[in-house]
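Following up on my earlier message about N-(5'-phosphopyridoxyl)-D-alanine. Here are the inputs again, as you asked, copied directly from the submission form:
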Amino acid sequence: SEVYMNGKWLPAAEATVSVFDRGFMFGDGIYEVTPFYGGKPFLLQEHLDRMSYCLKEIDLEFEKKDLKKLIFEAVDRAGLAQNDCAVYLQVTRGKAPRTHHFPQQVEPTFLMYAFAVQLEGFEDRKLTIKLSPDIRWQRCDIKSISLMANTMLNSEAIQKGHFENVLFRNNRITEGSHSSIFFIKDQKVYTHPEGPEILSGITRRFVIELCTELEIEVIEEAVSLEELSAMEGIFLTGTTTQILHVTSVFQNDRELYNSSEAGAITKKLQEAFRKKTR
Ligand code: PDD
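Thanks, got it. Here's what our run produced:
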Protein backbone atom coordinates (compact mmCIF):
# COMPACT_ATOMS: atom_id res chain seq x y z
CA SER A 1 0.00 0.00 0.00
CA GLU A 2 0.97 3.60 -0.48
CA VAL A 3 2.18 6.13 2.06
CA TYR A 4 2.73 9.87 1.75
CA MET A 5 6.21 10.81 2.80
CA ASN A 6 8.04 14.13 2.44
CA GLY A 7 5.83 15.36 -0.35
CA LYS A 8 5.47 12.16 -2.37
CA TRP A 9 3.18 9.16 -2.59
CA LEU A 10 5.25 5.97 -2.46
CA PRO A 11 4.76 2.25 -2.01
CA ALA A 12 5.31 1.68 1.74
CA ALA A 13 8.34 -0.53 1.03
CA GLU A 14 10.07 2.35 -0.77
CA ALA A 15 9.48 4.96 1.93
CA THR A 16 12.64 5.02 4.02
CA VAL A 17 14.05 7.28 6.68
CA SER A 18 17.62 8.34 7.44
CA VAL A 19 19.33 6.65 10.39
CA PHE A 20 20.00 10.23 11.54
CA ASP A 21 16.33 11.17 11.52
CA ARG A 22 15.60 12.50 14.99
CA GLY A 23 12.43 10.45 15.09
CA PHE A 24 14.52 7.29 14.68
CA MET A 25 17.30 8.37 17.08
CA PHE A 26 15.43 10.29 19.79
CA GLY A 27 11.75 9.65 19.27
CA ASP A 28 11.70 13.38 18.55
CA GLY A 29 8.28 13.81 16.97
CA ILE A 30 4.54 13.69 17.38
CA TYR A 31 1.66 11.78 15.79
CA GLU A 32 -2.08 11.78 15.31
CA VAL A 33 -4.69 9.13 14.47
CA THR A 34 -7.91 10.46 12.95
CA PRO A 35 -10.98 8.32 12.12
CA PHE A 36 -13.24 8.03 9.06
CA TYR A 37 -16.66 6.43 9.41
CA GLY A 38 -17.73 4.90 6.07
CA GLY A 39 -15.19 7.20 4.46
CA LYS A 40 -16.50 10.31 6.28
CA PRO A 41 -14.14 12.22 8.59
CA PHE A 42 -15.08 12.51 12.25
CA LEU A 43 -13.69 15.44 14.31
CA LEU A 44 -10.90 15.95 11.77
CA GLN A 45 -10.41 19.64 12.62
CA GLU A 46 -10.12 18.77 16.33
CA HIS A 47 -7.38 16.24 15.51
CA LEU A 48 -5.53 18.79 13.38
CA ASP A 49 -5.84 21.39 16.14
CA ARG A 50 -4.33 18.95 18.65
CA MET A 51 -1.51 18.24 16.21
CA SER A 52 -0.78 21.98 15.98
CA TYR A 53 -0.80 22.24 19.78
CA CYS A 54 1.69 19.36 20.09
CA LEU A 55 3.97 20.81 17.40
CA LYS A 56 3.98 24.13 19.21
CA GLU A 57 4.72 22.47 22.56
CA ILE A 58 7.80 20.70 21.16
CA ASP A 59 8.87 23.81 19.22
CA LEU A 60 8.64 22.11 15.83
CA GLU A 61 7.70 24.30 12.89
CA PHE A 62 5.68 22.38 10.35
CA GLU A 63 3.35 23.80 7.70
CA LYS A 64 1.62 21.64 5.15
CA LYS A 65 -0.53 23.29 2.53
CA ASP A 66 -3.79 21.52 1.78
CA LEU A 67 -3.20 19.01 4.57
CA LYS A 68 -6.91 18.19 4.75
CA LYS A 69 -7.00 17.46 1.03
CA LEU A 70 -3.99 15.16 1.39
CA ILE A 71 -5.66 13.30 4.24
CA PHE A 72 -8.72 12.64 2.03
CA GLU A 73 -6.38 11.58 -0.75
CA ALA A 74 -4.74 9.06 1.60
CA VAL A 75 -8.15 7.49 2.23
CA ASP A 76 -8.94 7.43 -1.51
CA ARG A 77 -5.62 5.97 -2.55
CA ALA A 78 -5.95 3.20 0.03
CA GLY A 79 -9.30 2.29 -1.56
CA LEU A 80 -11.08 3.06 1.73
CA ALA A 81 -13.35 5.92 0.60
CA GLN A 82 -16.48 3.91 1.55
CA ASN A 83 -14.97 2.13 4.55
CA ASP A 84 -14.27 2.53 8.23
CA CYS A 85 -10.66 3.57 8.46
CA ALA A 86 -8.20 5.90 10.12
CA VAL A 87 -5.34 8.08 8.97
CA TYR A 88 -2.01 8.03 10.79
CA LEU A 89 0.03 11.26 10.64
CA GLN A 90 3.51 11.69 12.02
CA VAL A 91 5.92 14.61 12.07
CA THR A 92 9.49 14.15 13.26
CA ARG A 93 12.10 16.91 13.51
CA GLY A 94 14.04 15.46 10.58
CA LYS A 95 17.59 14.49 9.79
CA ALA A 96 20.46 16.19 11.62
CA PRO A 97 23.79 15.28 13.25
CA ARG A 98 23.07 13.83 16.70
CA THR A 99 22.82 16.52 19.38
CA HIS A 100 20.50 16.63 22.35
CA HIS A 101 19.37 20.18 21.67
CA PHE A 102 17.01 20.85 18.78
CA PRO A 103 18.98 21.60 15.59
CA GLN A 104 18.15 24.74 13.60
CA GLN A 105 16.76 24.79 10.06
CA VAL A 106 16.04 21.14 9.64
CA GLU A 107 13.39 19.87 7.25
CA PRO A 108 10.77 17.90 9.25
CA THR A 109 9.92 14.37 8.12
CA PHE A 110 6.21 13.97 7.46
CA LEU A 111 4.58 10.56 7.10
CA MET A 112 0.92 9.76 6.52
CA TYR A 113 -1.15 6.73 5.51
CA ALA A 114 -4.69 5.39 5.78
CA PHE A 115 -5.54 1.96 7.19
CA ALA A 116 -8.73 -0.03 7.70
CA VAL A 117 -10.12 -0.27 11.26
CA GLN A 118 -13.02 -2.11 12.82
CA LEU A 119 -15.43 0.54 14.09
CA GLU A 120 -18.56 -1.63 14.22
CA GLY A 121 -19.88 -3.48 17.23
CA PHE A 122 -18.05 -1.61 19.98
CA GLU A 123 -21.20 -1.72 22.13
CA ASP A 124 -20.99 -5.48 22.60
CA ARG A 125 -17.32 -5.93 23.34
CA LYS A 126 -16.39 -7.17 26.77
CA LEU A 127 -13.07 -6.29 28.24
CA THR A 128 -10.94 -6.54 31.29
CA ILE A 129 -8.24 -4.07 32.18
CA LYS A 130 -5.21 -4.14 34.44
CA LEU A 131 -4.11 -1.57 37.01
CA SER A 132 -0.55 -0.37 36.39
CA PRO A 133 1.56 2.43 37.84
CA ASP A 134 1.73 5.29 35.34
CA ILE A 135 5.44 5.18 34.51
CA ARG A 136 5.13 7.68 31.63
CA TRP A 137 6.74 11.13 31.59
CA GLN A 138 5.10 14.29 32.89
CA ARG A 139 3.98 15.75 29.56
CA CYS A 140 1.33 13.23 28.59
CA ASP A 141 -0.59 16.08 26.93
CA ILE A 142 1.94 15.84 24.07
CA LYS A 143 1.12 13.01 21.67
CA SER A 144 4.77 12.06 21.40
CA ILE A 145 5.94 9.16 19.22
CA SER A 146 8.16 8.15 22.17
CA LEU A 147 5.80 5.48 23.46
CA MET A 148 8.22 3.21 25.34
CA ALA A 149 6.28 3.36 28.61
CA ASN A 150 2.89 2.93 26.89
CA THR A 151 4.10 -0.08 24.90
CA MET A 152 5.81 -1.72 27.90
CA LEU A 153 2.68 -1.28 29.98
CA ASN A 154 0.24 -2.48 27.35
CA SER A 155 2.36 -5.52 26.44
CA GLU A 156 2.18 -6.62 30.04
CA ALA A 157 -1.62 -6.20 30.03
CA ILE A 158 -2.01 -8.16 26.76
CA GLN A 159 0.29 -10.95 28.03
CA LYS A 160 -1.98 -11.35 31.04
CA GLY A 161 -5.07 -11.49 28.80
CA HIS A 162 -6.31 -7.93 29.33
CA PHE A 163 -7.19 -5.31 26.73
CA GLU A 164 -5.85 -2.19 28.38
CA ASN A 165 -4.18 -0.74 31.45
CA VAL A 166 -5.74 1.68 33.83
CA LEU A 167 -2.86 3.86 34.93
CA PHE A 168 -2.46 5.57 38.27
CA ARG A 169 -0.05 8.22 39.51
CA ASN A 170 0.03 9.42 43.14
CA ASN A 171 -2.94 7.17 43.83
CA ARG A 172 -5.06 8.92 41.19
CA ILE A 173 -6.27 7.23 38.03
CA THR A 174 -5.06 9.08 34.93
CA GLU A 175 -6.03 7.19 31.73
CA GLY A 176 -5.29 4.05 29.72
CA SER A 177 -2.09 3.25 27.81
CA HIS A 178 -3.88 4.30 24.61
CA SER A 179 -7.36 5.42 25.69
CA SER A 180 -9.13 7.81 28.05
CA ILE A 181 -11.10 6.52 31.03
CA PHE A 182 -14.46 7.49 32.54
CA PHE A 183 -16.22 6.39 35.73
CA ILE A 184 -19.88 6.46 36.74
CA LYS A 185 -21.10 6.92 40.29
CA ASP A 186 -24.48 8.17 41.61
CA GLN A 187 -25.62 9.07 38.06
CA LYS A 188 -22.58 11.30 37.57
CA VAL A 189 -19.69 10.80 35.18
CA TYR A 190 -16.07 11.34 36.33
CA THR A 191 -12.90 11.72 34.30
CA HIS A 192 -9.40 13.07 34.99
CA PRO A 193 -9.13 16.82 34.24
CA GLU A 194 -7.02 17.98 31.30
CA GLY A 195 -3.42 18.89 32.01
CA PRO A 196 0.05 17.38 31.64
CA GLU A 197 -1.01 14.07 33.28
CA ILE A 198 -3.23 12.97 30.38
CA LEU A 199 -3.68 13.31 26.65
CA SER A 200 -6.54 15.63 25.79
CA GLY A 201 -8.48 12.85 24.04
CA ILE A 202 -10.63 14.05 21.15
CA THR A 203 -13.17 11.30 21.90
CA ARG A 204 -12.98 12.22 25.60
CA ARG A 205 -13.97 15.81 24.84
CA PHE A 206 -16.71 14.66 22.46
CA VAL A 207 -18.15 12.33 25.12
CA ILE A 208 -18.14 15.17 27.65
CA GLU A 209 -20.20 17.23 25.16
CA LEU A 210 -22.54 14.28 24.63
CA CYS A 211 -23.07 14.10 28.40
CA THR A 212 -23.99 17.79 28.44
CA GLU A 213 -26.44 17.25 25.57
CA LEU A 214 -28.00 14.32 27.41
CA GLU A 215 -28.07 16.25 30.69
CA ILE A 216 -25.71 13.85 32.41
CA GLU A 217 -23.51 15.62 34.94
CA VAL A 218 -19.77 15.40 34.24
CA ILE A 219 -17.17 16.07 36.91
CA GLU A 220 -13.61 16.47 35.68
CA GLU A 221 -11.94 15.08 38.77
CA ALA A 222 -9.60 12.14 39.15
CA VAL A 223 -10.85 8.96 40.83
CA SER A 224 -8.54 7.51 43.47
CA LEU A 225 -7.53 3.86 43.74
CA GLU A 226 -9.59 3.47 46.92
CA GLU A 227 -12.71 4.74 45.15
CA LEU A 228 -12.34 2.39 42.19
CA SER A 229 -14.18 -0.65 43.56
CA ALA A 230 -17.22 1.47 44.48
CA MET A 231 -17.75 2.69 40.89
CA GLU A 232 -21.01 1.74 39.19
CA GLY A 233 -19.62 1.86 35.68
CA ILE A 234 -16.32 2.29 33.87
CA PHE A 235 -15.75 2.90 30.17
CA LEU A 236 -12.82 3.70 27.90
CA THR A 237 -12.87 6.13 25.01
CA GLY A 238 -10.61 6.72 22.02
CA THR A 239 -10.52 7.16 18.28
CA THR A 240 -10.54 3.45 17.52
CA THR A 241 -11.75 2.38 20.98
CA GLN A 242 -14.95 4.52 20.72
CA ILE A 243 -16.90 3.87 23.97
CA LEU A 244 -16.06 0.51 25.52
CA HIS A 245 -17.70 -0.81 28.66
CA VAL A 246 -15.14 -2.27 31.08
CA THR A 247 -16.22 -5.60 32.59
CA SER A 248 -13.47 -5.96 35.16
CA VAL A 249 -10.38 -4.36 36.62
CA PHE A 250 -7.53 -6.49 37.93
CA GLN A 251 -4.73 -5.61 40.31
CA ASN A 252 -2.21 -8.40 39.78
CA ASP A 253 -4.43 -11.51 40.07
CA ARG A 254 -7.06 -9.87 42.23
CA GLU A 255 -10.29 -8.65 40.68
CA LEU A 256 -11.01 -5.22 42.20
CA TYR A 257 -14.07 -4.40 40.17
CA ASN A 258 -16.65 -6.32 38.14
CA SER A 259 -19.61 -5.27 36.02
CA SER A 260 -20.83 -7.81 33.46
CA GLU A 261 -23.34 -5.50 31.74
CA ALA A 262 -23.08 -1.86 30.69
CA GLY A 263 -25.39 0.35 32.75
CA ALA A 264 -27.99 2.83 31.50
CA ILE A 265 -25.64 5.82 31.24
CA THR A 266 -22.97 3.92 29.27
CA LYS A 267 -25.64 2.51 26.93
CA LYS A 268 -27.17 5.95 26.39
CA LEU A 269 -23.77 7.42 25.54
CA GLN A 270 -22.93 4.53 23.20
CA GLU A 271 -26.24 4.96 21.38
CA ALA A 272 -25.77 8.73 21.07
CA PHE A 273 -22.19 8.20 19.87
CA ARG A 274 -23.34 5.73 17.21
CA LYS A 275 -25.93 8.23 15.94
CA LYS A 276 -23.33 11.00 15.67
CA THR A 277 -20.87 8.83 13.77
CA ARG A 278 -23.21 6.98 11.37
N1 PDD B 1 -4.40 6.67 21.16
N2 PDD B 1 -4.87 8.57 25.86
C1 PDD B 1 -3.79 8.08 25.23
C2 PDD B 1 -2.53 7.88 25.99
C3 PDD B 1 -3.86 7.76 23.84
O1 PDD B 1 -2.79 7.29 23.21
C4 PDD B 1 -5.10 7.94 23.15
C5 PDD B 1 -5.24 7.65 21.69
C6 PDD B 1 -6.20 8.45 23.87
C7 PDD B 1 -7.52 8.73 23.22
O2 PDD B 1 -7.44 9.89 22.43
P1 PDD B 1 -8.37 10.13 21.17
O3 PDD B 1 -9.79 10.08 21.63
O4 PDD B 1 -8.00 11.47 20.69
O5 PDD B 1 -8.06 9.05 20.18
C8 PDD B 1 -6.03 8.77 25.21
C9 PDD B 1 -4.23 6.58 19.73
C10 PDD B 1 -5.48 6.27 18.98
C11 PDD B 1 -3.07 5.65 19.39
O6 PDD B 1 -2.05 5.79 20.05
O7 PDD B 1 -3.18 4.83 18.47
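One observation from looking it over: The radius of gyration is 19 Å. Hope that helps, and feel free to reply on this thread.
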